[in-house]
Amino acid sequence: MRERLQFPLSLLRRLPRLRLLALTGYGTRHIDMSFCAEHDIVCCGSGSSSPTGPAEMTLGLMLAASRQIAAGDAAMRHGGFQAGIALGRSLEGQTLGIIGLGRIGARVAAYARAFGMRVIAWSTNLTDQQAQQAGALRVNKDELLRQADIVSVHLVLSARSRATLGAAEFALMKPGALLVNTSRGALIDEPALLEVLGSGRIRAALDVYDREPLPGAHPLRTAPNTLLTPHLGFNTEATFRQFYGESVENILAYLDGHPIRILSS
Description:
seven-stranded parallel β-sheet, 2 domains, two-stranded parallel sheet
């Protein structure tokens, strides 16, 4: 089960025989872990901790949005060619601002440097040494937003990080700057994002959303200046092979009386 499948208190109370939740992933925000602890419901995680999948997806979105790849594909499929497709922008020479320079953010920084980009970074607890080790320059949040041609978000969602980017932050970004989010939708204030996209001031390449699956009539689906993908950052063969292989191991270990990969709140 993934994070989009909620197990709140109201549901758990309807499952008196439930003894094990086998998760693909390690996040527990979607589960009432206090209730599970009180009622001896074991929660086990599985899956890769590799940054490769989401980091590669970030690079893919940066390239696709910068080089008009989706628009080119659509034109070809509708009998067109180059007419009506905006000029692309090279990644080389652009400044990438990374918000959250953890494992995934650091991998994105490495990819960006390979493309000849300048990399700057910010997060609440980031140090100069950590940034330097990742090949980035630490700046404050406002400086990052003002300088970056592309802003990529790589934070863990928490009460503190929710809505890290909103109207005030969008106002600081360069006109035409690209916002990339492959982390969690709630890191961005969605109404503020819709407003700034509608104004044409910035662009966005999004793989994650505040609600998933994204409702069919959601305004993001028709918002201008956007490139949208359906949360594919973790969708690789290697990841799912590990998800399900370890999930089976978790179930068998529980049945043997020795559960493994146990999660706590």
